[in-house]
Design a protein that fits this description.
The protein contains 5 helices and 11 strands, in the order αβββββαβββαβαββα. By secondary structure, the chain is of the alpha+beta class. The longest helix is centred in the C-terminal third of the chain and has 32 residues.
Length: 267
């Protein structure tokens, strides 16, 4: 009878322990990826190159982006692209459909972001230096890097679970924009005309220059002194762990109290 009573008293404690242990956060995407950025076929940025490195922890994204050989003294929008129906690769020369846009002459000489979309998909992350990093900031030219050579990092960008999964699976593409077709040292309408993404911007400012597929698991670690962890990126995990430890302590205390009472009663 005493053994049965102890078992009945101990079972709820064990059940609560299991519940607390299993109450942690649901499994989320975690991994790293890197991309070697090369000129898009046909774009007049030969000799330019870059590197993109990404780390995913749940839905928090940390990244470092570097590039060289681009148009000096000009902003260079940069994004991570992905599309469920896209090829999820960098475009080739055959993707230039040479369809003339408004104000564009010699369209076969210009490669637009729209023409590249079937290859790399839509914008899913804007690699801005500060502030919002969602697709809505895709043309926030005041928050992207400026110059022929740059390197910057941040660790607080937030992505959707679907985007996190795509990046970890190696299905995302980094694209850096900005091409000086006419060689006048600035973004101008020229023969390219205005952008297919925003008629207020010259097409040179938004056309893709560099591209690279994010190969999953190819980055050993983020550069030393590079990405700062975003505030709260691990807060939920830490709190869940503290709650579990506290819960286990409480359960242990309750079980000990039950044991002491039974010992007192039995004696």
């Amino acid at each position: 009878m005493k053994t049965t009573t102890r078992a009945l008293l101990t079972a709820p404690a064990l059940g609560l322990t299991a519940l607390l242990i299993s109450a942690g956060p649901a499994a989320a995407a975690d991994g790293t990826a890197s991309a070697s950025l090369q000129p898009i076929a046909g774009q007049p940025v030969q000799g330019a190159s870059g590197q993109g490195m990404v780390e995913i922890s749940g839905t928090n994204l940390s990244f470092t982006l570097a590039a060289q050989g681009l148009l000096a003294d000009a902003p260079h929008a940069a994004h991570i692209h992905f599309g469920a129906d896209a090829r999820n690769e960098c475009p080739g020369a055959s993707d230039n459909n040479a369809a003339a846009l408004s104000g564009e002459t010699n369209p076969h000489e210009h490669f637009t972001t729209t023409e590249g979309a079937p290859a790399y998909g839509e914008i899913v992350v804007s690699l801005t230096k500060t502030g919002d990093a969602s697709p809505q900031s895709g043309l926030a030219v005041d928050r992207f890097a400026v110059g022929s050579e740059f390197e910057y990092s941040r660790g607080d960008a937030q992505v959707t679970p679907a985007v996190a999964d795509a990046i970890v699976a190696g299905k995302a593409v980094v694209v850096v924009h900005g091409v000086d077709y006419d060689g006048d040292g600035t973004y101008s309408a020229g023969e390219r005309g205005m952008s297919d993404l925003d008629p207020k911007l010259p097409g040179e400012a938004t056309d893709p220059a560099l591209c690279g597929v994010l190969n999953a698991g190819q980055m050993g670690s983020m550069p030393n002194g590079g990405v700062d962890a975003g505030a709260g990126s691990t807060t939920g995990v830490e709190n869940a762990g503290l709650m579990a430890v506290g819960g286990l302590a409480a359960v242990g205390g309750a079980a000990l109290l039950v044991h002491r009472r039974r010992t007192s009663t039995d004696s």
